[in-house]
Hints:
By secondary structure, the chain is an alpha/beta fold. The chain is about 30% helix and about 25% strand. It is built from 11 helices and 21 strands. Strands 1, 11, 12, 15, 16, 17, 18, 19, 20 and 21 form a 10-stranded mixed beta sheet that branches. An 8-stranded parallel β-barrel has the order 2-3-4-5-6-8-9-10, surrounded by 4 helices. Strand 4, helix 5 (about 95-100) and strand 5 form a beta-alpha-beta unit. Pyridoxal-5'-phosphate (PLP) binds near residues 41, 208 and 210. The site of pyridoxal-5'-phosphate has 12 residues, from helix 9.
Amino acid sequence: MIRQTLAHVDLGALAHNTRAIRALLAAECGAAAPALAGVVKADAYGHGAAEVARTLVAEGAAVLACADVQEGLELRGAGLAAPILVFGAFSLGDFDAIFEARLTPTISSPTAAHRLQEAAARLGVRLPYHLGIDTGMHRLGLRHDNLLQTVPGILAAPNLVLEGVYTHFATADEPAGELFARQRRNFQAANETLAMLGAHGYTRHAANGAALLADSATWYDLVRPGLVMYGVPPDALKDRIAVKPVMSLRSRIAAVKGVRVGESIGYGGRFIARRPTTMAIVPAGYADGLDTRLEGRGFVLVRGQRVPIVGSVSMDMIAIDATGMSVAPGDEVVFTGRQGGDAITWAEMARWVGTIPYELLCRVGARVERVYDPPGL
Ligand SMILES: *Cc1c(COP(=O)(O)O)cnc(C)c1O
């Protein structure tokens, strides 16, 4: 711990959130509650995939889910033994890794199925896979309205074993919307088509975190929460569950200085002191993940007070206007998290800069050390 800018990752909060989700599922379904897939793509939304995955498995996650084969390999490299579902498309170079690391690929096209069948036959193994169904997101997945053309050939592949069928919602955080309802109907119909084609006994799943909070009809056999597990519930659904933020980004004041009336601060000289100003310099910038649009819009907590970020966000530092406060080098600076009686959430910071909390979490810089509490499992 040499740098002052650190991301504190509260694994206790992560465990609490995971239990809260499981309790919500159990409250409605009892022993028949859907299983949990812990989504740990993008280094577990910036929190650190290995530590997060170990915590989730300890809290009963049946499956880990990641974006691509490389992420799956990293989880295996960290010793995770749970089933790993890969959401994304794979490329030709990924085949060996899928088999060697026992990853579960998503098949989203007949071509992908054909290639996997060839590879599995060559190795003389049977490969479990999930079928991705496009019910209205229109990214990856087999079109829901074309399954009679695409699926029979996939189901007939002798070395491929259908283990799951799933879809993904485009608007789960607006559950009253028409698209959400349409996607649910399309997924239901897709499963009926699959049954007609003789597929059975597979795991069905659809719900990301927002969908699982919005509507228990989306739960099926498995749910796939991400952001809500990291303690950032969607605004519209935050009354449905009590989760605690997992990551808190903190630093310490590096220097304090006076700036005279008319002087500017930082690149571009955009902030000009209108009064004798006390500036505190914090050693965190956009290389640590701070959005440049925080300039003039964002706040940090120092000594329990909200202090505005002024002047440009540099690569490695920012300035805050601490006029009238007694601040000193070494004082704690909170970007997100609690200090005294106040707290800044990732959702609030995202609103300041006009983005989504997902993006901010994923952008916490690679050089920012993740400090785990309790210290990693
Ligand atoms: C990212 C992702 C999830 C988790 O989404 P959240 O909105 O973070 O709950 C679930 N399923 C798929 C396919 C995903 O890509």
